[in-house]
Amino acid sequence: MSYTTAQAHSHNDNRQLKPFNEASEQQFGSVETDVLLKNGVLYSVNNIEDTTPERTFEKLYLSPIIAQLEKNNGQIYSQKDISFQFLIDIKSKAVETLDILVKELEKHPEIISSGSNIKIVVSGNIPVPELFFQYPAYISFDGNPDITYTPQQLERIALISQSFSRYTSWNGEGPLPRNDKKLISKVVQKTHGLNKKIRFWDTPDNINTWKTMMSLQVDFIDTGKVIQMGDYLRTAPR
Q1: What is the full per-residue pLDDT of the chain (238 aa) written as tens digits?
Q2: CB neighbours (10 Å) of residue 151?
Q3: Which residues pair with 38 in a beta bridge?
Q4: Is 0.90 topped by the overall pTM?
Q5: Residue 159, CA atoms < 13 Å, CB-side half-sphere
């Protein structure tokens, strides 16, 4: 598998200095924001005390995404072969928040149109798999490797995610312990056997870890160091 910034995932992107823009400037293939519902408004924050008028989901993500679509003739990136995964991590009540999210997205048909090349994936507090079908087809869900989905439910799963610490306490220094590597590799292979992509969150965030994730054929490499990962993936020897 060849890695470029299309396989980079901006984890907790709303905590970046310039949410969305830093990752899109690096041409990341995947961006994640926390979303919290308060008084009928969606905020891109992790905690309710962080909600301010400047940190709404509309201001931090929807508006800049629309600007990018206008700039690139309806696509996030000018290169049509780079798709964009928009992972929305729900921190408030699942159904209530998702209902508002759908209303907000439907105000912007250019975002949810199939021509935009944007894949909307809902993570965090999500409905039980039996309820996936109550939501529009443009909404996909973040899956869990420990859940067995029906074939129909699997069609609504965009990728599989799990905490890295579930499999190892490795700190990113030196090689990944052999037994931990086998365990993680098994999960990766199982996910790929389902024809799904996988990512691990809360991984150590350094070059050694990024290289290790690539050696394990992890599809999206998590980082909070957006610019550094962009530079590394463009210049690292293959």
Answers
A1: 789 999 999 999 999 999 999 999 999 999 999 999 999 999 999 999 999 999 999 999 999 999 999 999 999 998 878 889 999 999 999 999 999 999 999 999 999 998 888 999 999 999 999 999 999 999 999 999 999 999 999 999 999 999 999 999 999 999 999 999 999 999 999 999 999 999 999 999 999 999 999 999 999 999 999 999 999 999 876 5
A2: 7
A3: 41
A4: yes
A5: 25
